[in-house]
Design a protein that fits this description.
Elements lengths: L3 E10 L2 E11 L15 H9 L6 E6 L2 E2 L10 E4 L11 H11 L4 H15 L14 H13 L5 E4 L5
Parallel strand pairs: 5-6
Antiparallel strand pairs: 1-2, 1-3, 3-4
Helix pairs in contact: 2-3, 2-4, 3-4
Length: about 160
């Protein structure tokens, strides 16, 4: 994971301040966990880093590059959501490789990366199944696999194991 910096990030919804001024330095390769009660701003903080939510003030940098005004696709973050967000009409293979396909990654590279992720996550036997035919744990692993194959600068997990 790349070095991540939050400088005086705040977020308010109307008069309600969800995230008071936050300074955060996460070193390259470091792993952190945000813990707190429901509604305290954990998901909002992740969404700001991913570019899915705009901070009220402050700046965000990834690998020394200010990404504050950048769109999500320009930030090189992969996010695993609590609800897995799988495409029900696609197989496990299709779900894991979808983002690479959309970005024009060559088919042989997609197949190789999907195979690596499936092996790592124990999903090899399920590659041709649809999400409806998987257990909850298998769906979680498919969502994680989809993030892994992208090889992003930053991995974000929003309660993926809840």
């Amino acid at each position: 994971m790349a070095h991540v910096e939050f400088r005086q990030i705040t977020k308010s919804f109307g008069a309600h301040e969800v995230i008071p001024p936050l300074d955060l330095d996460i070193d390259r390769g470091e792993f952190i966990v945000l813990v707190g009660p429901s509604g305290c701003g954990k998901t909002t903080t992740l969404r700001i880093l991913a570019g899915l939510e705009t901070a009220s003030s402050g700046s965000v940098a990834i690998a020394g590059r200010d990404v504050t005004g950048m769109r999500p696709g320009e930030r090189d973050c992969a996010m695993v959501f609590q609800n897995y967000a799988l495409y029900p009409h696609m197989s496990v293979r299709g779900n894991i490789g979808y983002a690479m396909k959309v970005h024009g990654t060559p088919k042989d590279e997609i197949a190789a990366r999907v195979g690596e992720a499936a092996a790592l996550l124990g999903l090899d036997p399920y590659l041709d199944r649809k999400p409806a035919n998987l257990s909850g744990g298998q769906r979680q692993r498919v969502a994680i696999g989809r993030a892994l194959v992208r090889k992003p600068e930053v991995f974000l997990f929003d309660e993926p194991l809840s």
